[in-house]
Structures are given as structure tokens and as C-alpha cells.
Task: inverse folding
């Protein structure tokens, strides 16, 4: 066996290190428009450009408002942001060693090309890098969540809801603690997940995206030194809210990131529910409750041709675990900053896209997986028919009601049923014989004799309408 180390390959060195940029690229590409380095830089340019327009609109320091054409030409810098700007920033940052400064220089360069040198010094005026970054992150994360991640979560919820409605009356044996328990329906069990996810999705939709714009330590000191008569907090608030995000007026050098902590905790919560869904569906497939629909050309095993592996749910499970770890780290790190500022948040926030990428990949697999399963109702019914002992709950509860009504002299009905069924398989005929000998009223006895495991589903069917 060879023990030689392969030579370094320039071709391999150029390949993606992360699977999100490799084999899974197609599933997560939508996030790159917002949460990539280029997406962040585009948003930074947007904030810088809009700040210049906001300042000139107020004719500050003798500046004249830009014409509509000049504003549109300036806004084209971020609206048409592309490879030229990406390359320009990369080249400049290799010298500045500071990404936001490179963005400032890009804007200044474009101002010169547009003949707007007169307002060049309003670029990044009185701003610290975190003024630009906090607004840029709020913009990019909000857009990624609202335009890419939430629609995919909604698609999974809708797929679940559709399956819940389709299988609302499909009686199935429940398994609490893994043991046979009071029956439900597959539709109701899927509706539980849809209900849980809808609640968290609504919380995420109602979340805030905040930015600060108050200078080096959140005091507007430089602003007041330059123009003490201007209400800078109000101007900053109007500017930030005009970008479509919320304003945080009380900060250190950085926006405190609490909105991010709240968001990532909620997304991680949604991921936990989705993980629960993935493992439950996997288990139902293993039990034969769901059959997997073969995909033409697909291979389940390299050596066992008969297999159709539940890879969609396994992939989702693993990626949700990775995402949960990243979101937990984001939330626990971003909630703290030493004194007025440290840089731990800077490198941490560069992984926001990675966290959402693994989460989005999981959602994509769940959406696909839910469309590739078919309910085996015959298996569900056979499982129910093999477990008549689950009717013990119904019998002892009816007996209790009969005792209270004065129609029975039975003492301790729970113990009576426990003796009959605990740890034993009891068939329909045995239960019918047992019920026939009970000291209860005729009407109650008739109801119990008519009961079957498949019919003992309570309001499960109707509960689906709650979704």
C-alpha cells in the first residue's frame, strides 16, 4: 500500500473548500447575493452612497443637492455592483488591509469619475466602520431571510400542511416512549410540526433588524464638532429608517447585535423542530409507514441494488446540526463586546452566510424529501390491528364514567385493565369478551364493543384544520 503524500495540485487548490460552494452550490446560491463577501460589500457601498445623498440633500457644509441624474448615477454603483467592483475592492484591500476603507476609496473613485469631487469629503463623513457595517449587515441579513430563507421555510410548512390534509384520516398507532399508545392520524402528527414551525416563522417575520449611526463610540462627537447646531441623532434615525431597517440610538462603537442574537436563536429553534421532523420521518420510513418513491436513475447503495435510502432526511438532519452549532456560536459570541469594542464580532459575522447556508440546504432537502414519500395505509392498519391492547385506556375511562354515573360497582378499573393488558398482546375477540362481561350500562358497552384501534383517534382528523 502506498504511503506517499500526493503532490500539491494547483487545480485542486482552486477548488471550493466548503461543500456549500461545491456540491451543494445550487441549493444555496440564492444566499450569495446577500451574505457573501461581495454581497456585504455591495451593501456597504449602498450605505456610503445613500449617506452622501442624505447629507447633500440637506445642503450641509455648503454642499448643493445632487440632481436626480447624479443621484441615479451614484446609486448605479451599488445597483450595478459586479465583478469590476469586486476586483477593484480586492486589489485595494490588499493594500489598505481594511475592507470598509477600501469601500470608501471605491466610492471616492466613482465620485471623481462622475465629476463630483466637490462632495468627496462627505464620503464616510463622521462614520466609524461599524456605522457602515451595522447597516450593511442589517440590510443583507434582512434581505437574505425575507427573500431566500423564509420562503424556503414557508415551502416546507406548506408541504407539511398539504400532507397533513391528505392524510388527516389515516389512523396510525402512536408510540410514546417507543411503545404502542393511543392511536392518532398521520395527518395530525404532521400538522403538529406545521403548527410549531408556523409559530416560530411568525416570530422571525416580526423580528427587528437594527443599525447604529452614531460615530466612534456612539456619542456623535465628531458630528457635533463639525456642526453643533444639527440634530444628528434625528438625522441618523431618519437616514437608517430610510434604508428600511430599524435604528438603535444607544450603543458603543458597535450596534449591540441583540437583534442578531434573537434572530439566530429563533432560526436555531426552527432548526430544532425541523430536526425532530427529519428524525421522525426517517423512523416512519424505517417502520414502513412511508414508502419512498423511486427516483429514476438514482442509486441507493453501491452494493445493494434494492435500497432506497432516506438521504433527504439524513442530509437535513446533519446540516441542521451544523447550522445549530453555528447559530449557537453566533448568538453566544455576538451578545458580548469588551468595553466599547472588540473584534470578535467581525470574524464571527463573516460566518452568518455559512450558518444560513447549512440551514437552507436542510430546508431544501426536507422540501424535496416530503415530495418523495408515499403513505402505506395498509401498513398503518396492520400495525393497529396487531395492538388492540391500546383500547385499554378507552375501556377503563368509560368504566370510570359509569361508576360516577352509578351504573357500575367496579372498583379500581385502571388496575383491572392493567392486569388484562400490561406487557401482553390482547386481540379483538379477547377484548370483546372482556367488555361483554363488564358491569356497565348497555349503551356504554355497545360503544366499547364497536370501538377498534383504527377508530380510536378522537379529534385527530378535525385538529388538522388548526393548521
Result:
Amino acid at each position: 500500500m502506498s504511503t506517499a503524500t500526493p503532490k500539491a495540485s494547483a487545480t485542486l487548490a482552486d477548488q471550493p473548500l466548503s461543500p456549500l460552494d461545491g456540491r451543494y452550490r445550487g441549493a444555496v446560491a440564492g444566499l450569495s447575493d446577500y451574505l457573501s463577501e461581495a454581497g456585504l460589500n455591495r451593501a456597504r457601498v449602498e450605505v456610503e452612497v445613500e449617506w452622501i445623498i442624505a447629507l447633500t440633500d440637506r445642503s450641509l457644509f455648503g454642499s448643493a443637492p445632487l440632481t436626480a441624474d447624479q443621484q441615479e448615477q451614484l446609486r448605479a454603483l451599488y445597483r450595478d455592483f459586479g465583478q469590476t467592483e469586486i476586483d477593484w475592492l480586492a486589489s485595494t484591500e490588499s493594500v489598505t488591509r481594511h475592507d470598509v476603507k477600501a469601500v470608501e476609496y471605491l466610492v471616492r473613485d466613482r465620485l471623481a469619475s462622475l465629476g463630483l469631487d466637490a462632495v468627496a469629503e462627505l464620503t464616510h463623513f463622521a462614520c466609524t466602520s461599524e456605522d457602515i457595517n451595522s447597516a450593511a449587515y442589517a440590510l443583507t441579513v434582512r434581505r437574505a431571510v425575507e427573500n431566500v430563507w423564509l420562503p424556503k421555510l414557508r415551502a416546507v410548512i406548506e408541504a407539511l400542511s398539504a400532507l397533513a390534509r391528505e392524510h388527516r384520516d389515516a389512523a396510525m398507532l402512536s408510540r410514546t416512549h417507543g411503545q404502542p399508545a393511543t392511536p392518532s392520524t398521520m395527518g395530525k402528527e404532521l400538522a403538529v410540526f406545521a403548527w410549531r414551525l408556523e409559530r416560530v416563522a411568525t416570530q422571525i417575520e416580526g423580528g427587528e433588524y437594527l443599525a447604529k449611526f452614531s460615530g466612534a463610540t456612539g456619542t456623535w462627537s465628531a458630528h457635533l464638532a463639525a456642526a453643533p447646531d444639527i440634530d444628528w441623532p434625528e438625522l441618523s434615525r431618519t437616514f437608517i429608517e430610510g434604508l428600511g431597517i430599524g435604528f438603535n440610538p444607544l450603543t458603543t462603537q458597535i450596534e449591540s447585535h441583540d437583534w442578531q442574537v434573537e434572530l439566530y436563536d429563533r432560526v436555531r429553534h426552527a432548526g430544532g423542530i425541523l430536526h425532530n421532523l427529519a428524525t421522525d420521518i426517517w423512523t416512519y420510513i424505517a417502520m414502513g409507514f412511508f414508502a419512498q418513491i423511486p427516483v429514476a436513475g438514482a442509486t441507493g447503495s453501491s452494493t445493494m441494488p434494492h435500497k432506497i435510502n432516506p438521504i433527504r432526511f439524513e442530509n437535513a438532519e446533519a446540516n441542521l446540526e451544523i447550522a445549530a452549532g453555528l447559530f449557537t456560536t453566533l448568538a453566544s459570541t455576538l451578545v458580548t463586546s469588551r468595553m466599547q469594542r472588540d473584534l470578535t464580532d467581525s470574524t464571527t459575522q463573516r460566518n452568518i452566510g455559512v450558518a444560513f447556508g447549512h440551514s437552507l440546504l436542510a430546508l431544501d432537502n426536507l422540501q424535496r424529501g416530503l415530495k418523495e414519500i408515499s403513505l402505506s395505509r395498509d401498513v398503518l392498519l396492520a400495525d393497529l390491528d396487531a395492538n388492540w391492547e391500546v383500547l385499554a385506556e378507552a375501556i377503563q375511562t368509560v368504566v370510570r364514567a359509569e361508576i360516577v354515573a352509578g351504573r357500575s360497582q367496579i372498583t379500581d378499573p385502571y388496575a383491572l385493565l392493567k392486569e388484562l393488558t400490561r406487557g401482553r398482546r390482547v386481540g379483538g375477540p379477547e377484548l370483546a369478551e372482556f367488555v361483554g362481561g363488564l358491569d356497565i350500562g348497555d349503551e356504554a358497552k355497545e360503544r366499547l364493543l364497536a370501538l377498534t384501534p383504527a377508530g380510536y383517534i378522537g379529534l385527530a382528523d378535525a385538529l388538522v384544520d388548526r393548521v
In short: Residues 30-127 form a domain with the Fumarase C; Chain B, domain 1 fold (CATH 1.10.275.10). The chain has three domains: 30-127, 130-299+306-377, 387-466. The chain has 20 helices and six strands.
